[in-house]
């Protein structure tokens, strides 16, 4: 008769409790027997002379049975242990996942030290070992231990290294995920590589990196519901920012012609495989450019990041599939692509009633406080979005959904905005920025009317931002790129996998 899932979980919990009790006793013994804090279960430091990755790099090709005569002191977490009488073996793992074998023999360490190893050391413990770098008779790179110390006693056991953690466990206990899964560590390193690449590309084009406020007296720069908080010091309502856009544009007004920021945004909205309430965002603004120039820059940023991570613009996902991000990416019109997919012409002049009828006929959800632009975008997502797997710039959006964007220079009723789609989701957005303060005020007023009708995502009138524009902002191209989604594009993972510690309920 097999255990039910609940009984199995209870058995596992009992086993963990028992192991914790045993390990707590070992911790107490280490404290009692230590001559000083340096000898206890949590010493302030250990005398490492090198690292496990460095030893593997220099001595990884040793022949079986070879001795180097080189002494080293290293530390790592025990992920495998085997005791065989007069000789004990342990695999020590470094933070990058590389390992080295520690061989603890009676001949080298003596009776007392070997006995203490057997009695006090468990899987998951951090230990320091010092001794000669050798290759075992089986050809495994090893330290022949002459001295060892506990570096940090683990009170809870490691998960089974041969059993895959559930997705929920990986997200909630990322520290365990990093310990046991190569892909988790690779994703963290890929993200760091991407950030470095983005900054190098910007630096090569004379952009300056800045930081703008996270706490704002009013949210702006995007159509999104904000998180609301309260400042005790100022006794006022504040908002976690939904976008840095309006502050970065102030910087352009102030003469920082090429500016970018990589930081967190917060939107009090749904969470799914492509959305997180807290996410990392890159925004950049380039004076005397437009949405075409900023599209070129965005393509360059992403392709350089792909090369930095994969060595090529052809990226290999975690599932082994390959995806080509190279070449010049397609640019299609939102209205033209929608018209073709829907089988009828749709233009900026198409009435709201016609769009509503088309939506109802195709079971497309009609958004609350529907406008021409909102319905066009909903219909476009229904008919077109899922077919865009290769990187594609979708150009020229409805004016009423883009209050911060300049009117198109030659097409009435649309603005110079693009969204970049890859694999069916939006990765980035870019504008020819609206710099006319009079028109910007008119757009804000229209947004305020939507807010009065109950649209919680509508923007508010930002008088300080308008005052900045009135001092003169040059023609500018701007873009926003989701860092988490960029990692999705480069790895094929879901958004919760690309964020080191995602928000979970």
From TrEMBL:
CC terms in the record's Gene Ontology section: cytosol
**Where is it localised?**
Cytoplasm
MF terms from GO for this chain are: ATP binding; lysine-tRNA ligase activity; magnesium ion binding; tRNA binding
Please give the superkingdom of this protein's source.
Bacteria
State the reactions this protein catalyses. tRNA(Lys) + L-lysine + ATP = L-lysyl-tRNA(Lys) + AMP + diphosphate
Give the CDD domains listed for this entry.
LysRS_core, LysRS_N
* Keyword annotations of the record: Aminoacyl-tRNA synthetase, ATP-binding, Cytoplasm, Ligase, Magnesium, Metal-binding, Nucleotide-binding, Protein biosynthesis
Cofactor(s), by name: Mg(2+)
Q: Which organism is it from?
A: Microbacterium faecale
Q: Which GO terms describe its biological process?
A: lysyl-tRNA aminoacylation
Q: Which Pfam families match?
A: tRNA-synt_2, tRNA_anti-codon
Fetch the PANTHER family from UniProt.
LYSINE--TRNA LIGASE, CHLOROPLASTIC_MITOCHONDRIAL, LYSYL-TRNA SYNTHETASE
Which residues of the sequence carry a binding annotation for Mg(2+) 2? 426
EC numbers: 6.1.1.6
Copy out the cofactor comment.
Binds 3 Mg(2+) ions per subunit.
Q: Which family does it belong to?
A: Belongs to the class-II aminoacyl-tRNA synthetase family.
Q: Which InterPro entries did the record assign?
A: Aa-tRNA-synt_II (IPR004364), aa-tRNA-synth_II (IPR006195), aa-tRNA-synth_II/BPL/LPL (IPR045864), Lys-tRNA-ligase_II (IPR002313), Lys-tRNA-ligase_II_N (IPR044136), Lys-tRNA-synth_II_C (IPR018149), NA-bd_OB-fold (IPR012340), NA-bd_OB_tRNA (IPR004365)
Q: What is this protein called?
A: Lysine--tRNA ligase
| Residues binding Mg(2+) 1 | 419, 426
- How does this polypeptide assemble, per the annotation? Homodimer.
The gene is lysS
Broad class of where this protein is predominantly found? cytoplasm
| Domain Aminoacyl-transfer RNA synthetases class-II family profile: residue ranges | 192-502
Enzyme category, top tier: ligase
């Amino acid at each position: 008769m097999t255990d039910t899932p609940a009984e199995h979980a209870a058995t596992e919990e009992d086993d963990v409790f028992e192991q914790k009790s045993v390990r707590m006793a070992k911790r107490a013994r280490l404290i009692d027997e230590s001559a000083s804090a340096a000898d206890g279960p949590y010493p302030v430091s250990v005398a490492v002379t090198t690292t496990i990755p460095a030893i593997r790099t220099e001595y990884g090709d040793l022949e079986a049975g070879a001795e180097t005569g080189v002494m080293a002191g290293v530390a790592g977490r025990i992920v495998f242990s085997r005791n065989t009488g007069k000789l004990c073996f342990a695999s020590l793992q470094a933070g990058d996942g590389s390992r080295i074998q520690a061989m603890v023999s009676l001949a080298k360490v003596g009776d007392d030290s070997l006995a203490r190893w057997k009695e006090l050391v468990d899987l998951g413990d951090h230990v320091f070992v010092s001794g000669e770098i050798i290759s075992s008779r089986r050809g495994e790179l090893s330290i022949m231990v002459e001295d060892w110390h506990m570096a940090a006693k683990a009170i809870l056991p490691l998960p089974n290294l041969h059993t895959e953690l559930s997705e929920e466990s990986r997200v909630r206990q990322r520290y365990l995920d990093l310990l046991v899964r190569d892909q988790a560590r690779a994703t963290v390193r890929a993200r760091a590589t991407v950030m470095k690449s983005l900054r190098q590309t910007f630096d090569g084009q004379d952009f300056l990196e800045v930081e703008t406020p996270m706490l704002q007296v009013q949210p702006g720069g995007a159509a999104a519901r904000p998180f609301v908080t309260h400042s005790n010091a100022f006794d006022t309502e504040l908002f976690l920012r939904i976008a840095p856009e309006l502050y970065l544009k102030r910087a352009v007004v102030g003469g920082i012609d090429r500016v970018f920021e990589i930081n967190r945004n917060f939107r009090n909205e749904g969470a799914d495989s492509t959305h997180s309430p807290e996410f990392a965002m890159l925004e950049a603004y380039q004076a005397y450019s437009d949405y075409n120039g900023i599209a070129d820059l965005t393509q360059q940023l992403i392709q350089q990041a792909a090369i930095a991570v994969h060595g090529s613009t052809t990226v290999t996902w975690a599932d082994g599939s390959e995806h080509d991000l190279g070449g010049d990416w397609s640019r299609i019109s939102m209205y033209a692509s929608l018209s073709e997919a829907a089988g009828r012409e749709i233009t900026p002049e198409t009435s709201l009633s016609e769009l509503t009828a088309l939506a109802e006929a195709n079971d497309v959800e009609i958004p609350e406080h529907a406008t021409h632009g909102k319905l066009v975008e909903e219909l476009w997502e229904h008919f077109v979005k899922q077919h865009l797997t290769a990187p594609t710039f979708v150009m020229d959006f409805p004016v009423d959904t883009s209050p911060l964007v300049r009117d198109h220079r030659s097409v009435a009723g649309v603005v110079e905005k693009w969204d970049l789609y890859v694999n069916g989701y939006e990765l980035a957005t870019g504008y020819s920025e609206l710099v006319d303060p009079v028109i910007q005020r008119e757009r804000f007023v229209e947004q305020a009317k939507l807010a009065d009708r109950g649209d919680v995502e509508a923007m508010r009138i930002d008088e300080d931002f308008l005052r900045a524009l009135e001092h003169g902002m040059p023609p500018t191209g701007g873009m926003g790129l989701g860092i988490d989604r960029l990692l999705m594009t480069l790895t094929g993972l879901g958004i919760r996998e690309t964020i080191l510690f995602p928000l979970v309920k």
